[in-house]
Amino acid sequence: MSSGKVTLLSAGPGDVDLLTLRAARVLACADVVLLDDLANPEIATLAPSARVLRVGKRGGCRSTPQAFIERLMVRYARRGLHVVRVKGGDALMFGRAGEELAALRDAGIATAIVNGVSSAFAAANALGISLTHRAHCQGVTFVTAHLQDHREPDWSALAATRTTLAIYMGMSRLDALCAALGDALGPHTPGAVVQHAGGANERSVVARLDRLADAAHAAGLGSPAIILVGPAIAEARNASARPEATLARAA
Amino acid sequence: MSSGKVTLLSAGPGDVDLLTLRAARVLACADVVLLDDLANPEIATLAPSARVLRVGKRGGCRSTPQAFIERLMVRYARRGLHVVRVKGGDALMFGRAGEELAALRDAGIATAIVNGVSSAFAAANALGISLTHRAHCQGVTFVTAHLQDHREPDWSALAATRTTLAIYMGMSRLDALCAALGDALGPHTPGAVVQHAGGANERSVVARLDRLADAAHAAGLGSPAIILVGPAIAEARNASARPEATLARAA
């Protein structure tokens, strides 16, 4: 039996101080840190005694295969080391945590998970809005625009929920998804794109659905970004007019 | 002009070490802390120089009216104080942040927001699963079972998204919502109830939809709890069998 283990640890969005106190404590005693592309590389400073390996898997780019990452975690844990696998946002949403946890269990490796802030919450913060203003909606739906089988999500079914939609990994399909959601929800429905949510280089645009893709392209926004759609985003107009718009960052 | 301000600050779910590093820093220099019922009262220890006021608003109980809380924030901020309004989970989901931000802007008070971990992520952690295992679903929908106008959420529309459903504030309607979702998704669909997600007294049950309410009642589970429903929850069965099931806590 090995005394090593693997912790799936959430980096949160952007700034290092969006990690939890628990995440900082776990990193401080990590032996090996596997760092995702979407996680802030400054996180390595919180793990001074760890060997830090970059294992980015950003869509479309040259990247480390999933199976190799899983083998790496198992190998180090079997040497008795504490491996910390750092993932952007919260580790339990859109990060293949399900597959990694299954692989680790199959290998008999002890696992732990440390939660974090998912990027869509930081995107709402950038706009100064609630994701679920109860005058506008009953909740929020987090979806990825990239499905496992390369199909599109069922935008009309998502629109029918009357929840705010928070779309991850959607920038390469921004025009098509704005058109599909405009058909389902109406072209005047408000939307927003927030790039680098929660980071020092955060930028955003707010526009109705029939203008959102053009506005985002004109502003030069690209991945990684969160796309928010729904009546609750209308509150952001007031938000952009408030004089203290930059305070959330400085708090 | 006042130099005071109000920060809406996310307490996260349960344990104090699930707050972010930024939240801890902001609390350390708070003058006044307004503490929600759903936030861990130990948070007050992070704000040693602040006057701490409990302003619980738990459903059905005697509680502080929303308008009074908003007046309190404005009054202290106008005295030049830094008011920190602490909310359970993430402040930008299901916490009336939208109304509070609007009231503060109307009053000309500077505002900031500090994000946090929402309870459903801690609930997934308790079960050792991803909320969005890509073999099972394309995302996750967070809804409250208590709508502003006292209607039920449209369970069939939510079921049609094929996302994992994470239901907040649903325990008083558990039997009815399990029946409605069982009709829409099939009675064998897996579900779970996690009480006190992320806290030291966390407890959970996993069962198919036609047995979930009975199982939760038999286990004595009540509010506050997260109800999770969808094929992705099936992964939790393996989770409950893993020998390291308690490690996530001790990480």
UniProtKB/TrEMBL annotation, chains A, B:
Main EC class the enzyme belongs to: transferase
Keywords: Methyltransferase, Porphyrin biosynthesis, S-adenosyl-L-methionine, Transferase
InterPro entries: 4pyrrol_Mease, 4pyrrol_Methylase_sf, 4pyrrole_Mease_sub1, 4pyrrole_Mease_sub2, CobA/CysG_C, Siro_Cobalamin_biosynth, Uropor_MeTrfase_CS
EC number: 2.1.1.107
Biological pathway: Porphyrin-containing compound metabolism; siroheme biosynthesis; precorrin-2 from uroporphyrinogen III: step 1/1
Membrane spanning residue stretches: none
Any Pfam family: TP_methylase
Domain Tetrapyrrole methylase span(s) in chain numbering: 5-212
GO molecular function: uroporphyrin-III C-methyltransferase activity
GO biological process per UniProt: methylation; siroheme biosynthetic process
UniProt xrefs under CDD domains: SUMT
Family: Belongs to the precorrin methyltransferase family.
Protein name as catalogued: uroporphyrinogen-III C-methyltransferase
Source species: Chitinasiproducens palmae
